[in-house]
Amino acid sequence: MQALSSAPDMRSAGTAATLSAGLSMLRDSSPADILVIDLGLPDGSGIDAIHAARTAWPRCEIMVATVFGDESHVMRSIAAGATGYLLKDSSAADIVRELRSLHQGGSPMSPLIARQVLLRMRAPAADTPAEPPPLTPAATPPTTLSPREYQVLTDITRGFSHDEIAQRLGVSRHTLLTYVRRIYVKLDVHSKVEAINVARMQGLLDDR
Amino acid sequence: MTARLIWHRWLALALCVTAILASACAHAASLPLHLATAQLRITPDGSLESPPMQLVMPADAEPWRQTPLPVVVPRQITPDSLDNGAVSTVWVRVQVPDATGTANAGDPLYLYAARWQTVGRLAVYVDGQLRWHSRAGPVWNSYNYPLWIPLGPHPHDIVVRMDMTGQVGGALSTMRIGTNGQLLWRYAVRSFLQTQFPYLSSGALLAIGIFSLMVWCRRRAESRYLLCFLAAGSYFLHTLQYLVGQDPLPIPEAWFTWLAFNSIAWLILACYVFIFRYLDVRYRRLEAALTCIVVFLATSTLPLSWFTHAVFLFPLAQLLLVCLNLTASIAALQASWRARSREALLFSIWNAMSTPIAVHDVLLQNYRISIEGIYLLSYLGCVQLLLFMYLMYRRYIGALDQVAQVNASLAMRLAQREAELNESHRQLREIERRETLAQERQRLLEDMHDGLGSSLMSALRVVEQRGAEIDVAQLLRECIDDLKLTIDSLEPDSADLLLLLATLRYRLGPRLEAAGIGLVWEVEDVPPLQWLDPQGALHVLRIVQEVFTNILKHGNATVIRVQTHAVDDTVTVRIHDNGAPFDPGAVSPTRGGRGLTNLHRRAQAIGATIGWQADAHGTWFDLLLAVARPAANA
């Protein structure tokens, strides 16, 4: 709130302290541009709030506020549909910058998260000829990283900053952030495809 | 209710059958003639050559006399040397009345006689023409096959000529004359009882014997299988004598006689030794005596002068054999009774039965009882066969049970062992878990102490000493950064050194930027450090963090360069700052010395080497890490 007050182009559309209050807000209020969700709500998991927000406000950017930005929490949030995350101890200026950059198209990603994304998603076929061919072409495209995205992620795990990566790739910072944003979306889709695959393997879904 | 119904049905059926039989008998009362009397004459100077085709009677023969059938010419036990070699002829004549042809006129008639027996030859003449004669002989001359001779439609006069040697005697049973339909069943039944059944049973027993022999070949220690085979073989040889005679023998008759006689002695020996072995008892003397007698019989009856043996010695030898059998069977009964073995007792009882059976057979052979009886010794074998099978079955089932028991106990022991193993595994896992927990606790403890603890402590000191002058928020932020590093070190994939450095940059970068220090990131890909566990990762993080902190606090630097290289088996992390040159030797232990000590301690813990080197623009810090697991890092 404090951070928002210092930014003239942003205003708080509403706040909710509990999961139930948040859910009712999602139902009743008009969609906001950005939703910041704390994972540790007093009456339930923030993950549920993310799910609800994805259906209620499909065009809204969802940001997760976490203390440490540790891999397990963030990955769960992203899989649920979040497109960025915010460290709670960031300075007000940082928070405003993060929110702005998210709204403009991209959210920063920590090296550990990038590593997780790399582990979870299929590398681009051109970079890994040894990899067996994808099972079905129809199922794989949305979950496969493009060579550029792969390069971005690898550079993040090597510790390069977003600006440095943009320089290395010869693109603008803005373009780089769209890459990152695309990775977030793919991860969300990927987690759904993965769930469907698991369900198929366990015979929960018919293949028709 | 149902039972009574069935009973009634059976009764009805029985009545029907009886009625049919009675009517058949009444109808044929005239035809199937049962001849119980005949005319007899005995003439000397007979011949064992083939009989002439026409009936020729010696001219000086004594007159016919009436005799009842069966007719017996007794055997003389005492040898009469004067009469030796002489052949006498017995003539038996029956007249067939014409009236018999009325019911079944034109049907061919048959002569049926249950038995004839002698050492010699038999010929049957119908109306003066030779109709049938025995082809083998003289000793093994089909005496055990009933007579079945076609007579033609209207026979009148039937003469049976029996040539017999010396004193052995001879006999002819009653005769029946009738049509095929009237008499064939008698012949078939008799034939089955006398020859076919013994043949079948001895064959089956021989098969079992061969099976036993094969078992014995694999298990030489178990002599009972061999004995079973010997018994079966002896029994088969013994039974042959009831089957031969329709054609001339392939071996000399004397040898066959020897075989037929001795095989029964071998059978007795094998059976009793089998019983004793089955019961695991040894009667050394009895067994030795048995063997001696059997050997004696075998040698003394060798066919060196076949006639003598065949005629005189055999009755005496048979007596000896009967005595032998009696003694052995009593011994076997006693042993079985003592051993309380039901099946052995059964076997012994049956073996003991062989004595009366053998006596019966000897009497039959010597015409002491009605010769229309059947040689029973051949039936001894089929029961013995069943008993042998039963004993084998018991043994087989016992072995299977034993195997099942062994398997069960094996499975039980296996389960026991498995449970023990599981238990010890569980204990091991428990110990391992406890150790891991203890290590982790130790690590966290150390880290709390060296990292967050000491940060908080120094923050507290600063706040206490200088109060409001300093930025408390900054201090707390540093503490939180410390905490974040601890959490980052817990990430599962920590073998990647670049990832660690990246994390460090992600965490500390904002602070460095805030302090106005630019970061030049010049990392190269390095091989993964397999030994880098969370603990080692934290050490690396802390070392680099400490270096950054030192630069921040003391160096007045504006640019920090971070480089990584991999040369051979060593990975180097180089950090350059353009601040005041740093000389670790000049640092006093009181100011910042603790940080240096920590650096060295941590480097030692992961087997790394650290060092500082000043150049024209500042100071290089080097951290050398081995790719392979360092020996010092235990």
In short:
The complex is a heterodimer of chains A (208) and B (634). Chain A has 208 residues and is mainly alpha-helical.
Which key features would you list for this structure?
heterodimer, A: 208 residues, mainly alpha, three-stranded parallel sheet, two-stranded antiparallel sheet, 5 strands, B: 634 residues, alpha+beta, five-stranded mixed sheet
The percent range for helix content of chain A is: 40-55%
Give the N-terminus to C-terminus distance of chain A in angstroms: 50 Å
Order of helices and strands of chain A: HHEEEHEHEHHHHH
How large is the share of residues in beta strands of chain B?
15-25%
Helical content of chain B (DSSP H or I, runs of 4+): 40-55%
Biggest sheet of chain B, in brief?
A: 6 strands, antiparallel
Helix and strand content put the structural class of chain A at: mainly alpha
Q: Average the pLDDT over all residues of chain A and give the rounded result.
A: 73
* Low-pLDDT runs of chain A: 125-141
Total count of helical runs of at least 4 residues of chain B: 12
User: How many strand elements of chain A?
Assistant: 5
List the uncertain runs of chain B: 22-29
Q: What Rg of chain B do the Cα atoms give?
A: 57 Å
Note the gap between the termini of chain B: 93 Å
Tell me the number of strands of chain B: 18
- Can you tell me the overall shape of chain B? rod-shaped
Describe the structure.
- The complex is a heterodimer of chains A (208) and B (634).
- Chain A has 208 residues and is mainly alpha-helical.
- Chain A has helices at 2-5, 19-28, 46-56, 71-80, 92-104, 111-120, 147-157, 162-169, 173-201; strands spanning 34-38, 40-41, 44-45, 61-66, 84-87.
- In chain A, the strands form two sheets. Chain A has a three-stranded parallel sheet, with helices on both faces. Chain A has a two-stranded antiparallel sheet with strand order 2-3.
- In chain A, a hairpin with a 2-residue loop joins strand 2 (40-41) and strand 3 (44-45).
- Chain A is globular.
- By secondary structure, chain B is of the alpha+beta class.
- Chain B contains twelve helices and 18 strands.
- In chain B, strands 3-2-5-11-8-9 form a six-stranded antiparallel sheet, with no helix packed on it. Chain B has a five-stranded mixed sheet with strand order 14-15-16-18-17. In chain B, strands 1-13-6-10 form a four-stranded antiparallel sheet, with helices on one face.
- In chain B, a hairpin with a 4-residue loop joins strand 17 (609-614) and strand 18.
- In chain B, helix 2 crosses helix 8 (377-466), helix 3 runs antiparallel to helix 4 and helix 5 (284-300) packs antiparallel against helix 6.
- The model of chain B is unreliable at 22-29 (pLDDT under 50).
- At the A-B interface, helix 6 of A face helix 9 and helix 10 of B.
